[in-house]
Design a protein that fits this description.
By secondary structure, the protein is α/β, with parallel strands linked by helices. The chain is 47% helix and 20% strand. The protein has 12 helices and 9 strands. Helix 2 runs antiparallel to helix 10 and helix 6 crosses helix 11. The protein starts with a helix and ends with a helix.
């Protein structure tokens, strides 16, 4: 090969490489979620986008759609499966209709604390559950964080399970939560998150249960008077992608997506932990009565075993045993 031929070949290779990068730079993934821009979910999504652009040298970026812009959780999950949306994140209860075993996460009081929940979700059980999503056209990328759920209401302070009786409480459509609040004597009303603020404001429902970060970012404290830190169940976010779209990406891009998604899960968990004290102080300043000293064991005594039995009867106890042995 002459020097002139070498230069021509090199130039051609550079043009092809540049064209390939340019083509990849056009990959913009639509990423939808329900929470507002003030929530750590959106803040973390922004950081994830920055990291993806940096690590792929601009080959891949995200278009962010917070505030239920692309629909509620059920609608977005369906849209990801069909390929209309590329990526979505929502709480694990929203996936139990597709992967019933996902309900193991929602068993009341199955996790002792945050460290226990993270250990399980970042380990064998988490991997098994994410893998099951693939049969539904979804690639599970990582678990992010919603947090331990507590009860707010507009009627009265809740100190004991008896105080829950008769309350109309919004729950997710997840049967585990519906059954738990029936056991407590409440009237559970399944409802999408996008409808919740108005339902509380109009007193269609009296109460709801979410981690306090969501209570704060969605401004539910404006229409709720009491917060009881029951921490009766833990909810992770699941970040999922259309599996066909994921499979079409290069192995390098796939690896960056997964590793950075997991990294962002750790980041968001820390954000939520750091924000908790500030949020409680803010809720009190806004006029919410925060009950932090309730006896959680009384709630656990009523609903924990029922939840375990509900799951065992349908799916066996293998996953429960794995969780219990990794405290």
């Amino acid at each position: 090969m002459t020097f002139k031929q070498f230069l021509l070949t090199t130039a051609t290779t550079c043009v092809l490489f540049a064209s390939s990068v340019q083509a990849q730079a056009e990959i913009k993934l639509r990423f939808g979620y329900e929470t507002p821009r003030s929530d750590t979910q959106h803040i973390t999504a922004q950081k994830w986008n920055d990291i993806l652009k940096e690590r792929t040298q601009g080959a891949l970026s995200l278009r962010l759609f917070p505030d239920s812009t692309l629909g509620n959780a059920a609608a977005m999950i369906s849209s990801v499966r069909s390929g209309i949306i590329d990526i979505e994140m929502s709480g694990s209860p929203n996936f139990s209709g597709l992967v019933p075993e996902m309900n193991v996460i929602d068993i009341p009081f199955i996790f002792k604390d945050e460290a226990h929940a993270y250990k399980i979700l970042d380990g064998e059980v988490g991997d098994l559950l994410l893998k099951k999503l693939e049969d539904q056209g979804l690639k599970g990328l990582a678990f992010w964080d919603v947090g331990f759920r507590s009860i707010t209401n507009s009627k009265h302070s809740i100190h004991t399970p008896e105080d829950v009786k008769g309350l109309k409480i919004r729950t997710n459509a997840n049967p585990m939560y519906i059954e738990a609040f029936k056991q407590l004597g409440a009237n559970p009303v399944p409802m999408s998150f996008s409808e919740l603020y108005t339902a509380l404001e109009t007193r269609t429902v009296d109460a709801q249960e979410h981690p306090i970060g969501v209570v704060w970012s969605a401004k539910l404290y404006e229409v709720q008077k009491y917060l009881s830190m029951s921490k009766h169940a833990y909810t992770p976010l699941i970040v999922v992608m259309n599996k066909k779209k994921f499979d079409e990406l290069s192995p390098e891009i796939q690896a960056i997506l997964i590793s950075s998604a997991k990294e962002m899960g750790q980041y968001q968990r820390q954000l939520n932990k750091e924000n908790e004290v500030m949020i409680i102080a803010g809720l009190k300043k806004a006029g919410v009565e925060v009950i932090e000293d309730l006896d959680r064991s009384k709630f656990e005594a009523i609903i924990a075993q029922k939840g375990r039995d509900y799951f065992k009867e349908r799916y066996g106890d293998e996953l429960i045993k794995l969780i219990d042995t990794q405290e």
